[in-house]
Amino acid sequence: MEKQKKAVSMTFEEIVEQNERRIYYHLHKLNIRDPHREFYQEGLVAMWNAYEKYQPDKGPLATYFNYTIRNRLIDVVRKEAKEKEKVDAYKQFQGVKEKTGNYYKSGGNAYPIKYAESPNLEAEELL
Predict the structure, then answer these.
(1) What b/e sequence results for 36-74 when a residue is b if at least 16 CB atoms lie within 10 Å of its CB, and e otherwise?
(2) If DSSP codes are grouped into helix, strand and coil, which group holds residue 109?
(3) What predicted TM-score, i.e. pTM, was given to this entire model?
(4) Which tens digit of pLDDT belongs to each residue from 73-96?
(5) Residue 77 CB-density burial (10 A; 0-12 exposed, 13-18 middle, 19+ buried)
């Protein structure tokens, strides 16, 4: 019980210093490449939220950190995958739209061809 009270009385900077490896652990386990440290920042935010919402009588702080960090990282990965799907679908739609032949290109831009109605000619006039 004293450890839990001690963990709550520590500053967040001290807690980050002690638990920073948890973020790297989950990044590694989820096979996330993070060259710009965006996922690391999400892990820190998750750790901060867990630190703020922690209730000592519910269980150990370390377990709550693990749960919160892992789930936040999974949410971010899913969000990025969904966003990538939408962008890819839009690119494909635009590619098909430009390649249907109903557009002409001028100066790197594609413009739609205006539809012109043909005159209604009767069969007798055509013959």
Answers:
(1) eeebbebbbebbeebbeebeeeeeebeebbbebbbebbe
(2) strand
(3) 0.68
(4) 999 999 999 999 999 989 888 877
(5) middle
